[in-house]
Amino acid sequence: MKFQKRRPTALAALLLTATFAFAGCGGDDSGDGGGSSAGGDGGGGDMSVTMLPKNLGNAYFDTSTDGAEKAADELGAEFEEVGPDTASPDAQVQYINTVAQQGKDALIISANDPDALCDAIDEARSADVKVVTFDADTNPDCRDLFINQATSEGIAAKQLELIADQIGGKGEIAILSASANATNQNSWIEMMEKELADNPDYADIELVDTVYGDDDDQKSFDQTEALLQNHPNLKGIISPTTVGIAAAARYLSDSSSKGKVALTGLGTPNQMREYVDNGTVTAFALWNPGDLGYLATYAAAALVNGDISGEEGDSFDAGDLGSFEVGADGVVLLGEPFTFDKDNIADFDF
Ligand code: RAM
């Protein structure tokens, strides 16, 4: 079992705050913050919270954990991050069991499977642990709230717009995804398939393959190579995972396909900067994972304190991000995806 607890340095905290300024923050940013008072309204008091990402060693989740830890500090809550090396549901179960045994107040989890974790999560909830999914949801019945980075429709539409633009609206494309069970990637892929079939703007684009790199760098790199070998007419790749797009960019940038096969999807600016600078990638998208972790922690605190029960229409304070409302099926929406390109990438550091 891997345990990781990190304290951000003052500089890291400052950089993180700077990243909060960009699009998709949601909330009304009412200005009074409200989250910095431990134990007050919206405060976390003695709350103990465990964050369980899909896996450790992924820069995306390092940033979401930094955001969660910032919120926990503001709330005066005890915070830890735990997680497996591989993004698999089996590997997450033991951590959920431990949270239940330890009697933690809240678990914040990016789920590696919509169903397979539900028994363990049920046990934890019976032990009075509030369970908030973020990034990748379980079935809605399993958890109290899901903190969604952006709508699936919005994320799908953005990636299709980017690839269509980059391949001149026609040709073969492929998808390099994360794991085959990932609820978030699967719902984005489903939306993209639907949009490709229904939208006349995409009539000349053909999705020829979808492959899975399991959010493992080497596997994603190898899958990129295989895609290019198996589809000699490939014009573009969409990788809706920060691990996949970075590995694919690394492969392409050293290959004869650089500049010929377009690559877009969801990436972090720090991992993609080199490939935007060297012309392998022109534009990609994401939201702010730091904001996502921050919002999830405030949502967990609101549940633990009994300020909300997770019903549609409940609203809660999320510190610097302002106030948020719970929507249908217990979903709280962070904002919209944001596009990064050579003109703006230097403004971001995560
Ligand atoms: C990877 C993970 C995560 C996803 C991002 C875009 O880091 O698969 O779940 O939201 O990519």
Automatic annotation (TrEMBL):
Residues 50-306 form the Periplasmic binding protein domain. Pfam families: Peripla_BP_4. SUPFAM superfamilies: Periplasmic binding protein-like I (SSF53822). Residues 1-23 form the signal peptide. Its main location: other. It is found in: Cell envelope. Keywords: Signal. Transmembrane segments: none annotated. It comes from the Bacteria. This is Rhamnose ABC transporter substrate-binding protein. It comes from Nocardioides hwasunensis.
